[in-house]
Every structure is written in structure tokens, then in C-alpha cells.
Amino acid sequence: MVAADGGALVAEQLGLVPDVVIGDIDSLGETEQLFAEMGCRFVRFKAEKDETDTHLALQWAYEQGYRDLSVLLQRSGRLDHVLSAIWVGTGFLSKSAFVRYVDSGFEAVLLKGPAELVVRSAKPLTVSLLPIASQVHGVTIEGMKYPLMQATLSLGESRGISNETVSETAHVRVREGILLVTATDTDV
Description:
- About 20% of the residues lie in helices and about 40% in strands.
- The protein is elongated and about 55 Å long.
- By secondary structure, the chain is an alpha+beta fold.
- The protein folds into two domains: about 1-105, Thiamin pyrophosphokinase, catalytic domain (Rossmann fold, 3-Layer(aba) Sandwich), CATH 3.40.50; about 110-185, Thiamin pyrophosphokinase, catalytic domain (Rossmann fold), CATH 3.40.50.10240.
- Helix 3 packs parallel to helix 4 (about 80-95).
- The longest helix is centred in the middle third of the chain and has 15 residues, at about 80-95.
């Protein structure tokens, strides 16, 4: 596991020890010493830099050969950092990476067409489709309350928000463009 600076504190709260912590390491305090004693490595960057710690952590993981990249958001409270993590994630799609975002109660996945995502859940989920490109073409969804067939979703519209799964398996297909697919547990 790779932690982006303060993400190491979240790992500690979850009882996890990262393999590596990346960033300016400005917010760890005593946790840095504790993790160092447990074999955690630290990749340090200056505090004043062009990239966020999350961007640097994703880049490091990709350079180490990881192609399934998951970002634990853990209710960061920083919309700017969450949006930045999503925008940064789009850059890894053209490098054959799979990028997922996880937080309490929801998961999100970036899809770059042509692509298909299978959503599986024994209980109903609220699924939203958010265009990241100006237009996303050939959007087809099955197994949801409001199906689409080869639709075009445009940046700035809310057409893809708050759909609901109606079966244990639902499909989202994209022919062209980048789409953020979020799935929220309806019990949250």
C-alpha cells in the first residue's frame, strides 16, 4: 500500500501500515517514527511542488508496475483535492491503468471508451454517470431503472445522476470519451 502523506494517518486509524509514504511528510508527527520502525519507506518531496501528494503517489505506484490504482479518499473534506485526484486519474487511463476511488459509502471508477464496467451487488445501489470529457458517446446501461442505449452525455448536464440498480448485475458501456461512474450504497 502506498500512502500519500497524511493518508498514512488514515492508514494508522485503520490499523494498516503502508509499504511506502510519499509526499512532503509534513503531517505525520510520531506516526513517521512508528511506521519507520515497522519497515515503512518514505519518498520525500519538497512542500512547495507542482504536484499534489496524491498525484505523486499514483505516479510512483504506476512506475513500480501497478496498473490497478485505488485511491482511498476517506472523507478528506477537500473538494479541490478530490477533484484533482479524479483529473489526475484520467491521465493514467491512456497508460492502460484502471483507476478507482473509494470513500465511506461509495466507490467510483473512471472509464475511457471503449470500455465496459460490470456493477455487481446483492443490494440496490445508486449509480451516477458523470462525463469527464466534453461529450461521452455510446453510453449504454443495462440492469438499472433508467436504461440508456448508445446515448451521448455532455459535460455540464445532470442526465446520468441517481440511477438505481434493479438486478444483481448491471452493465455500463462507453464507446468514446471519459466517464466517472459512481456507485453508492442506498442504505448510506
